[in-house]
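Narrative of activities, Objective 1.

The group set out to show that a structural description can be obtained from nothing but a protein's sequence at a throughput compatible with the screening campaign. Below is one input-output pair from the validation batch, recorded exactly as produced.
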Amino acid sequence: QVQLMESGGGLVQPGGSLRLSCAVSGSIFDFNVIGWYRQAPGKQREFVAVSPIRSGTTNIADSVKGRFTISRDNANNTVYLQMNSLKAEDTGVYYCNAVYRVTMRNIWGQGTQVTVSS
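Output recorded for this entry:
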């Protein structure tokens, strides 16, 4: 079974940067889209960014537009989330999500904690 494995989270000061990685244990081309969501304490999980696998376009949430960038390394089956100018409200668990191309089934990674604090 294909798994998504996030890494790169941690504690960073406001204004700092982090790069999250989502490693796909299978082929990235088995999916329609791979993206990132986050969940802050006491809040619902929310969309952050998505990368359609067969398109060069990306979609970024308004709350992080201009600060976060999603990219892919197809050869290494990895999706990245570059996060710059981090704010306290970016704190939360960041999850990688993928939608299978054929079945449209969703799978999720285990999440990685991002804490923005001075």
